[in-house]
């Protein structure tokens, strides 16, 4: 399988340490995380700058992976990234990361499925066509590591 370029969507403040674990798996194309300082600079410039940053960073990605923590589904920029990914025809999937241990605060509660917040014109939910995987609670890291490439390929194929 080719290495894919992925855009990761997540709640920075709560989940950055868990997200780093997923990024470090290395199964996919190298994807450098934005630092807290970089993100704060982008946020200071306002909504238009945030949208441009998202568009620039998402533009050449083939798939958007939403890393779902306890509060991810409520985050406005995560919602924007999901809608943009769907409208742009990109592969889209979610992975619950609540069972990955954060060095600061351990594990957290499972968050809501962020795709439940989007409805098609017929009333069906985006979650009916976009998968949100829940890795094994006993070994979430290795479950993600062993399946990430397959999940991404399936999400991309589903959009073709």
UniProtKB/TrEMBL annotation:
Residues 7-101 form the Thoeris protein ThsB TIR-like domain. It comes from the Bacteria. Pfam families: ThsB_TIR. This is Molecular chaperone Tir.
């Amino acid at each position: 399988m080719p290495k894919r370029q992925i855009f990761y969507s997540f709640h920075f403040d709560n989940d950055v340490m868990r997200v780093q674990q997923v990024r470090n798996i290395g199964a996919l194309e190298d994807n450098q995380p934005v630092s807290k300082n970089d993100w704060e600079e982008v946020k200071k410039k306002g909504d238009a700058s945030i949208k441009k940053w998202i568009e620039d960073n998402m533009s050449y990605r083939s798939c958007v992976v939403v890393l779902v923590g306890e509060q991810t589904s409520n985050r406005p920029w995560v919602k924007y990234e999901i809608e943009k990914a769907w409208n742009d025809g990109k592969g889209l999937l979610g992975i619950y990361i609540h069972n990955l241990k954060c060095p600061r605060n351990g594990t957290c509660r499972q968050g809501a499925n962020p795709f439940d917040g989007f409805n098609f014109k017929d009333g069906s939910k985006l979650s009916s066509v976009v998968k949100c995987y829940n890795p094994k609670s006993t070994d979430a890291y290795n479950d993600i590591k062993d399946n990430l490439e397959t999940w991404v390929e399936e999400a991309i194929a589903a959009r073709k």
